[in-house]
Amino acid sequence: MAKRYKDLYLPSYYNTSSNAYDFDREIYERENERQRAEEQKRLERQAESVKRKSFVHRAKFTIAIFFVFAGCIVTMASNAAVDRQRVVNNDLKDQLAQLKNENINLQSKINDNTDLAYIEQAAKTRLGMSEPQPYQIIYIDVPKQSYTVQYEAETEQEKEGFGISKFFDVMKSVINLK
Predict the structure, then answer these.
(1) pLDDT for the residue numbered 45
(2) Dist CA 76 CA 33 (whole Å)
(3) Whole-structure pTM over 0.85, yes or no?
């Protein structure tokens, strides 16, 4: 209304009578339509905002469910791996027990076969061997010190001699080389 009658408020157009201007419904209807349109736009923006927020909430909820599901899958997979390893360990323990029993049996056979009385009996019965006769026995004189024993003794003496005497020996060998 103010737009249409803007110029009517000039002093020259001022109405001093008791008659009011004619009510212009057209202006009010356009203003009401504009306000309704603005209200409609505001409501649409608000609905769109709510829609966006609900989409974000749904997306967050979906992602959270996905992570919980993935965590459950990982937990089940790790439990399955632990169970598989437990089965493998039990199988290996059984194999170890069998091998220990086999080792005990083999060790007892070794002990039986290295027994001198058993060896002598097996040699006499199965192989037909007999004790050597006195004329078959020859005695050998072995020197008290053999070459290997002398060699080992020399290396031990070299290892023991460390200090000033060893230093002088090294110096003498260096001087003699030049």
Answers:
(1) 92
(2) 63
(3) no
